[in-house]
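Section: Multi-chain targets

For targets with more than one molecule, the full set of components is provided together so that the structure can be written out for the assembly as a whole rather than chain by chain. Components appear in the order listed by the source. The example entry contains two components.
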Amino acid sequence: MRLLEGELLESREILPRQWLQRYRAPWLAGGVRAGQFVHVRTPDYSGLVLRRPFSVNTVDRKQGEISIHFRIEGKGTEWMARLRPADRLEMMGPLGRPFEVDPRSRHLLLIAGGLGMAGVRALADEALASGRQVAILFGARSAAEVYPSSLLPDEVEYVVATDDGSLGHVGRVTDLLPAFEAWADQAFACGPEPMLAALATLAGGRDARLGVARLGRKGRSRPAGLGTPQARRRSWLQVSMEQNMGCAVGACLGCVVIGVKGPQRVCREGPVFAADEIDWEASA
Amino acid sequence: MTASQPIAEPIGAVPGGEVDLGGVNLSVDLAPARPGALSLRNPVLVASGTFGYGLEYGEVIDVQRLGAICCKGTTLKARAGNPPPRVTETPAGMLNSIGLQNPGVEAVLERYAELWAGWNVPVIVNVAGESIEDYVGVVRRLDGVPGISGVELNISCPNVGAGGLQFAVDPEAAAAVTAAVRRATELPLMVKLSPNVADVRGIAVAIADAGADCLSAVNTLSGMAIDQRRRRAFLGATYGGLSGPALKPVALRVVYEVAQAVKIPIVAVGGVGSLSDVLDFLMAGAVAVQVGTAIFADPGLPLRLVDELRAYCVEHDLTSHRELVGSALPQRRERPSVKGVEYRP
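Its structure, encoded as tokens over all components, is:
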């Protein structure tokens, strides 16, 4: 983790009030992993006192570039949307814990609700680069808010659900899960908390529905400690959580979500958690 | 500088330690009654709750160059804290309601004391409790532990035995907890004033008389935010503490008032975000400042303020920032009323 500057290369509105910005930030691009985030400084401390956390959306290690995808929600993101190429943005990162893919997993299912695409998008590239197959289930209110398929790699299977049925499946993105749960070796989700909670419930019943037996490894196998990469890697469903954030380095304890073993900092223990590390009832 | 090159890493790392340009002395003694017990090399501290236990920002700044570190609020037993959400930005500020989440004094000492003992920067343990016995219990445990340079009492906690009234709002309760802690330890003792009171001067005097070595002023101002979509309080705990630039004029007023009421040193805290803020607080009567919320946006700020204050002193032919302390206070004949307060010049 470092304090660094990114130089804006390209900025465009990909959906109403949603922007995709590409930055030159070689040091960050060299080390960041899918699921991690950067903490971006706004220009005017006298008015806007907090940095804004953004998942790293895509990474181009060769070019030393990263992109972030955000929606204009307030003054900070309004200011960001007005940045022009060559403008510089102060960032701190990479921060947080990444998604963990089991080496044996061949089929990865990514599930995104709305802006949640920003949280899982980078994993699609990482997974394809390592020869895996990727399907993305995406949910939005209407066709106007559906993440453009042109921004996804061709190899991805992209399935869309809209609340109003204006594109794809009519209903929730979670409705699509059963058709993919047998295919997927692991699933990774980002989106509104009720969506993640519904997915966690579905994931909890998956083994029983599919008749999967958990055999464990040969010899003595120790249970993976909460918050460890092993715990996430062994979990069928990993979720990227969102919370209002202060310091982003674990100092202020502002960004907690409630885990099964008490408060967990999204900035340090997260933002990626194994679904069964979160106390979904307490978080709701 | 090329893009993405670290701006500085760590910020303010000076080969060979402190550089003393122009012979400026920025040191300050926060416990004059115990000479040397809490002497800081510079008057820029980091405020409790914004800097964890001093390690969290270690990757991006040289924490050893800080004046002192006030660590996260520590209680006798572990506390899980408040339900989320716990923070939200407000105009020129933020609200927080962490709820004193901490692992308890034993775990804090076990995890950090040895590390702190090896540091050059003094660590002041912020202490909170729900009863006088709680505070005394924590402080007894801290007493004599290498690595602990002082105690800051957070008295903006409900006194469970007294109907939940905060210690900080009542001169007698504030004095009682201060006196009890004073008897329990020889550690330098800083007591943090609350701005959520009608007249802070009487409370400050009571705390000073009860044996505090210095005061920090101020804690956060109580506030709240509404979640309009859900039509309820936004923060999980309903109320939160306001910090950041919005709090600064309030903190400045409290420092200005208290500086005229007590003789012990005052450490200003509340919205420090620039050298100008530091100068304001010094002129209002503080000998040092704590930087809090501003660290979130700009972790390098505290150390930059040290350098900027030193440069300011050089430019203005000051041998120490202490020459500025209280320079904006009214002359004696103009002092505001301290009615209800025993006044000793």
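The radius of gyration of chain B is 19 Å.
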